[in-house]
Design a protein that fits this description.
The radius of gyration is 16 Å and the shape is globular. The chain has one domain: P-loop containing nucleotide triphosphate hydrolases (Rossmann fold). It is built from seven helices and nine strands; from the N terminus they run E-H-E-E-E-H-E-E-H-E-H-E-H-H-E-H. Strand 5 and strand 6 form a beta hairpin. Helix content is 40%, strand content 22%. A five-stranded parallel sheet has the order 2-7-1-8-9, sandwiched between helices. A four-stranded mixed sheet has the order 4-3-6-5. The chain is an alpha/beta fold and 189 residues long.
């Protein structure tokens, strides 16, 4: 195979990973976007099986202990997130281009088990813009925002661990760069 069928997208909190991934899901049907499992509660507008699989802590623990997770992590010291191994392997065996939108800890785990994957770091145009996005989305308390920004400082320092960096200064443009790195022709609007 000339390029990996698996691309891992990671980056700091509030950089827009979910927004870029949603744009790709809506505009590039040839890309199979993995749906993560999480122990956190749904945010307004999130749908089961579309945005996440929402599971209890006990269910998540069973998936981990049974070896059913490709990667998993505790994010921001609170909730668990992870990728179901079976769904990714099935999509890849079907010849689909697979995109995992995950956190840094998860990306490191995938690198251990699937080092030939394509690892892409989504970076903010600036620190101030990332802070503006986090505060502007209004989904976290001030305390949670501070916790996420402390985590983001560590996440930004990991950029060199990735094969490529895409700066998310424009969602459409960032998505086009990402799919191009996946070997897919970006759309002309």
């Amino acid at each position: 195979m000339s390029h990996s069928r698996l691309t891992v997208l990671a980056g700091p909190t509030a950089v827009g990973k979910g927004t870029v991934s949603t744009y790709i899901r809506d505009n590039y049907p040839e890309v199979w976007l993995s749906v993560s499992a999480t122990t956190r509660s749904p945010r307004a507008g999130e749908e089961e099986g579309v945005h996440y699989y929402f599971v209890s802590a006990g269910e998540f623990e069973s998936l981990v202990s049974d070896g059913q997770m490709l990667e998993w992590a505790v994010v921001h010291g609170r909730n668990r997130y992870g990728t179901l191994r079976r769904t990714v392997e099935e999509a890849m065996s079907d010849g689909r281009s697979v995109l995992l939108e995950i956190d840094l800890q998860g990306a490191r785990q995938v690198k251990e088990t699937m080092p030939d994957a394509n690892f892409v770091f989504l970076a903010p145009p600036s620190w101030d813009e990332m802070v503006r996005r986090l505060v502007g989305r209004g989904t976290e308390s001030v305390e949670e925002q501070q916790r996420r920004l402390e985590t983001a400082k560590l996440e930004l320092a990991a950029e060199s661990e990735f094969d490529h960096t895409v700066i998310n200064d424009d969602v459409r443009g960032a998505a086009a760069k990402l799919v191009s790195l996946m070997g897919i022709e970006p759309r002309e609007d």
